Amino acid sequence: ELVEFPGGVKGMALNLERDNVGCVIFGDDRGIKEGDTVKRLGSIVDTSVGKGLLGRVVDGLGEPI
Fold first, then answer.
1. 8 Å CB contact between 13 and 20
2. Nearest-CA neighbor of 3 among 52, 53, 32?
3. E-state strands within the chain
4. At the top level of CATH, which class does the domain 2-53 belong to?
5. pLDDT per residue over 4-60, tens digit each?
6. Is the pTM for the entire model greater than 0.85?
7. I need a surface site. Which of 13, 15, 34, 62 has the fewest CB within 10 A?
8. Could you give the CA distance from residue 53 to residue 62 in angstroms, rounded to a whole number?
9. CA quadruple 2, 4, 10, 15: dihedral positive or negative?
């Protein structure tokens, strides 16, 4: 599931444990610290594909690099 950290940085929850959650962070992690409140976005990672994507380089969220 996608999550959003303070400052708008997005991530994906992977490890769901009893006392913590492990996330992959898609962006600059320098402003993120232990104990920050993270918001669930209620969706999974997906991206639209089509002719407009051909030849483009995108990040893990489908955003052009």
1. no
2. 32
3. 2-4, 10-16, 21-26, 39-40
4. mainly beta
5. 999 999 999 998 899 888 999 998 999 999 889 999 999 988 888 889 889 999 887
6. no
7. 34
8. 9
9. negative
- Are 42 and 3 within 8 A, CB to CB? no
Cross-sheet strand order for the sheet of 39-40? 21-26, 10-16, 2-4, 39-40
Token pair belonging to 49: 């594909």
Closest by Cα among 35, 17, 19, 27 to 61? 27
- Contact assessment for residue 45 and residue 12, using Cβ atoms and an 8 Å cutoff: yes
pLDDT digits (tens, 9 = 90+) for 34-47: 889 999 999 988 88
All structural domains of the chain with their residue ranges: 2-53
